[in-house]
Design brief:
This protein has seven helices and seven strands. The protein has 181 residues and is α/β, with parallel strands linked by helices.
């Protein structure tokens, strides 16, 4: 429902970085949810994988490691493989869920924006699923000069309203007397 609200379909996803801990119970639950919500809505299998096979669990940093993996994939247009799998979990019906575990370097399309997501779980049972999209091609981005022509916000904070006003006045005076725009 969230994807359709922003005009995306399951077919628009190029890859999902799953939490994928390799556990007998957790992985079937996660893949079942991904498969029912996204995999079965696609004409081709949805590639999934997990950085944990390359680096270990990393506990609370596992979501950050997945994000770094996807940033690399966006930049290089290739998803590193999920390694070390001898046998896929027999409790997961990958065929019925329309999922495949990415076990080799996977080249990504170069002729369209990429969309990949990260699925991650927290210690308290919270679940986060974030969809990322690649930046537009350089030819469609505003020039650096055009980007800096607009005023950017200056965010400031202070312990109290009077301190905030005093600090804002100090900054305004400095900007005015130092020729800064």
């Amino acid at each position: 429902q969230t994807m359709s609200a922003i005009g995306l379909k399951a077919e628009d996803l190029d890859y999902i970085e799953a939490h994928g801990t390799g556990t007998a119970i957790g992985d079937p639950i996660e893949t079942s949810a991904i498969g029912r919500a996204l995999g079965q809505q696609r004409s081709q299998k949805l590639p999934i994988g997990s950085i944990k096979s390359n680096m270990g669990h990393l506990e609370t940093a596992s979501g950050a490691a997945g994000l770094i993996k996807l940033l690399y994939a966006f930049e290089k247009r290739v998803v590193p493989p999920t390694i070390g799998i001898n046998t896929l979990n027999p409790l997961i019906d990958f065929e019925a869920l329309n999922l495949e575990v990415n076990q080799a370097s996977m080249a990504l399309p170069t002729d369209k924006p990429l969309r990949m997501s990260i699925n991650s779980f927290g210690f308290g049972g919270s679940n986060a699923h974030v969809i990322l999209e690649s930046a537009p091609p350089a030819s469609q981005r505003p020039s650096a000069a055009a980007a800096t022509e607009q005023a950017l916000p200056l965010l400031i904070s202070a312990k109290s309203e009077s301190s905030l006003k005093a600090y804002a006045k100090q900054l305004a005076d400095w900007l005015e007397h130092n020729g800064a725009e």
